[in-house]
């Protein structure tokens, strides 16, 4: 059963959202992926938001560009944590419209927001949320962060050895 739902407003968002899919698959976390447009398929949005938890989804990552209403609308109807990924799209104002649409949610409707095109971090955050109640996922995150530390240390050693 899928644990993380990954949705996006259109297929053009897939190159950005693929980073969340990839990192979650690297962590052996199941995903459910779909295109759900807040403006073009509102009925599908409603159904997705209201029923994702009934399908075993535990966290939703929602990416959208332009006006980017998808993450906030999902958060308004779902009991699940929602992570918004602002996407710099062709109809975007340098991505600022997407960032502000996702970031500036009213009280009572939280959306965790990552950086512009930051789907990889959205995937990592989703894994951390799952890891708070799943020790195996938590260990995967601990190991991942240890690898990050090792990469930095190796880079530092490489620079220092050239002196």
Automatic annotation (TrEMBL):
Residues annotated as domain PurE: 2-152
Binding residue positions for substrate: 10, 13, 40
InterPro entries per UniProt: PurE_ClassI, PurE_dom, PurE_prokaryotes
SMART domains for the chain: AIRC
Reactions that this protein is recorded to catalyse: 5-carboxyamino-1-(5-phospho-D-ribosyl)imidazole + H(+) = 5-amino-1-(5-phospho-D-ribosyl)imidazole-4-carboxylate
Pathway note: Purine metabolism; IMP biosynthesis via de novo pathway; 5-amino-1-(5-phospho-D-ribosyl)imidazole-4-carboxylate from 5-amino-1-(5-phospho-D-ribosyl)imidazole (N5-CAIR route): step 2/2
A UniProt-annotated Pfam family: AIRC
The UniProt record lists the keyword Kinase: no
Superkingdom assignment: Bacteria
UniProt-listed Enzyme Commission number(s): 5.4.99.18
GO molecular function, one term: phosphoribosylaminoimidazole carboxylase activity
UniProt keywords, alphabetically: Isomerase, Lyase, Purine biosynthesis
Family: Belongs to the AIR carboxylase family. Class I subfamily.
Physiological role: Catalyzes the conversion of N5-carboxyaminoimidazole ribonucleotide (N5-CAIR) to 4-carboxy-5-aminoimidazole ribonucleotide (CAIR).
Protein name, as recorded: N5-carboxyaminoimidazole ribonucleotide mutase
Protein's organism: Aureibaculum flavum
């Amino acid at each position: 059963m899928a644990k993380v739902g990954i949705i996006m407003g259109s297929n053009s968002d897939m190159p950005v959202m693929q980073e969340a899919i990839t990192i979650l698959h690297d962590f052996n976390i199941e995903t459910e992926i779909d295109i759900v447009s807040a403006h073009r398929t509102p009925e599908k949005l409603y159904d997705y938001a209201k029923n994702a938890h009934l399908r075993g989804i535990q966290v939703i990552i929602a990416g959208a560009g332009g006006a980017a209403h998808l993450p906030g609308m999902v958060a308004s109807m779902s009991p699940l944590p929602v992570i918004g990924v602002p996407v710099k799209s062709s109809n975007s104002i340098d991505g600022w419209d997407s960032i502000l649409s996702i970031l500036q949610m009213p009280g009572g409707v939280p959306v965790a927001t990552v950086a512009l095109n930051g789907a990889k971090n959205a995937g990592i955050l989703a894994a951390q949320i799952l890891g708070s109640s799943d020790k195996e996922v938590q260990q995967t995150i601990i190991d991942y962060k240890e690898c990050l530390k090792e990469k930095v240390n190796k880079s530092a050693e490489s620079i220092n050895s050239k002196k």
